[in-house]
Amino acid sequence: MTSTPTDTQPPVAAALRGLPRVVDLLAARAEEHDRDATFPYQGVEAVHEIGLLTLTVGQQYGGPGAGLAEVVEVLAELGRGDASVALLAANTLLHHAEQARTGGWPNPVYRRLLTESRRGPALVAAVDATADPLIARPGPWGSPGPKAQGGWRLSGRLTGCPGVEALAWLAVRIRTAEPEPRTGTFLIRAESPGLEVDPVGDQLGLRAATCHELRFTEVAVPAELVTGLRRDDVESATTTAWRDLALAAVQIGVGRAARDWLVGFLSRRTPGGTGEPLGALPRYQAALGELEGALIGAEELVAGLAGRIDAGDEAAVARTGPAHLLVCRAVVDAVRAAVELTGSAGLSRRQPLERQLRDALSGPVHGRPPQAVLETAGRAALDRG
Predict the structure, then answer these.
(1) Could you tell me which of 85, 146, 157, 151 has the C-alpha nearest to residue 121?
(2) Is 117 exposed, middle or buried (0-12, 13-18, 19+ CB in 10 A)?
(3) CB 159: neighbour CB atoms within 10 A?
């Protein structure tokens, strides 16, 4: 947490007031970080300084306790500046929100995270590694001898983890290597002995998120830092719903940025002999209107479901998977249409539109697999008859 808001200004409103300046800063540096695939330290620091990385810290911990509706609003704006920074912020915001709902972290450990958050950006990656070759075996933790405590040893690798070179903590869902496997969340310090970053990530889009590989060699995790161990492999529906909509909001930000660039292009570009910009021609107005309509639909879908979830509507929780899929498809189609409308100008590396297309194409891989989402929705429809 950062600066203390005034008595007359709610904490969330105080943070949102500085959002436009941060979005401009992110947009100014996005091309550089994308080109070189370098981590956006300055951008993450700017997001932290106005209190956005701790926006979802629960009120019981002294935080603002922002709801999902406010989170998706913030992430859509951050995504308009730099979708990579928005993705990193989303992971941290989601984890603070889950802690506020469930209290999964041991209180002293979470207080340590909050202390780190006051000193600077303390990024948390909440990752599902149940499909990765990452093995958790029971074993003594600590020094050999009678004082050794029960715990776990982790070996293997974790692929595509956003922000690995600047994380404070990882909260990783892992399936244990026991005769009867269980699934739980392992809380791991990023500088733990035996944990190594392998900088192999070289993505098409969202390149500043530096989604490298983490290699675990007998990484020790004490038993008290493992939460929710159980034999069923079912994540909380509310946790899944928050993630679905948060990631959809990041993609909406990408679509908004592409829309903004296209509006500027159509307003400035004047073909020879016409005397009018492209934006004055009905054909281009209609094409822009089609793109605008798709983004409005995506924005209203996410905002509507987020508000319903904040109000406790369980039916809305069940709809976020298809909503995320629809939003991602709408944004990809919108940005692709902008590229087709502008031709070589839109594909120029000197313009942001080609980066926004790559970000739009890369975003869905951080969500649930489309096949699983569609199968779930199909089964639910059949059950309803």
Answers:
(1) 85
(2) buried
(3) 17
Q: 211 vs 102, 202, 312, CA distance in Å?
A: 28, 8, 34
- Residues 276, 280, 283: CA angle, nearest 5 degrees: 120
Rounded CA-CA distance 270/280 in Å is 10
Token pair of 292 as six digits: 């605008």
Residues 133-139: contacts with CB within 8 Å, 24+ apart?
133/157, 134/158, 134/172, 134/174, 134/216, 135/177, 136/174, 136/175, 136/176, 136/177, 136/186, 136/221, 137/176, 137/177, 138/176, 138/178
C-beta atoms surrounding 262 within 10 Å: 27
Helix (H), strand (E) at residue 183: strand 183-189
Nearest to 228 by CA among 192, 158, 175, 179: 175
Determine the 3-state secondary structure of 43 from DSSP.
Answer: helix
pLDDT tens-digit readout, 214-273: 999 999 999 999 998 888 767 789 999 999 999 999 999 999 999 999 999 999 999 876
Residue identified by tokens 């509706």 is 69
What span, in angstroms and rounded, lies between the C-alpha atoms of 39 and 242?
Answer: 25
**Which domains are present in the chain?**
11-121 (1.10.540.10), 127-230 (2.40.110.10), 237-384 (1.20.140.10)
pTM over the 0.90 mark? yes
* Amino acid at the residue 360: A
Q: For residue 313, give every residue at least 6 positions away whose Cβ sits within 8 Å of its Cβ, in sequence order, or none.
A: none
Give tens-digit pLDDT for 71-93: 999 999 999 999 999 999 999 99
Of 323, 336, 348, 354, the closest CA to residue 248 belongs to 323
